[in-house]
Structure prediction request, 124 residues.
Amino acid sequence: QVQLVESGGGLVQAGDSLRLSCAASGRTFSSYGMGWFRQAPGKEREFVAVISRRGGRTDYADSVKGRFTISRDNAKNTVYLQMNNLKPEDTAVYYCAATFYTDYTTRESLYNYWGQGTQVTVSS
Prediction:
């Protein structure tokens, strides 16, 4: 069992930055590929970013490429999402998720564990 707790969300203005954190407890953190997903009001949850178990591989949704950076610190059991140049369309609940099925996937269905989410609101 893995517990994931996100933090760092908030209300910001367009162009601002935020860093989300996701602290994991339970089984060995470095055994999991880690992802960030988000769900905007009235929309389905969507992939945002993924990082492999050792951090050597990352991928991003086209909508956030060049603005968001995912990273992880396996010594601290934490994954981060640095979000720069935020836009109103980035407003959503952001979830971190862990998968032990594979080193790296963008497929939501392959993630075993999910955090409770943190709200990010970007005003124009």
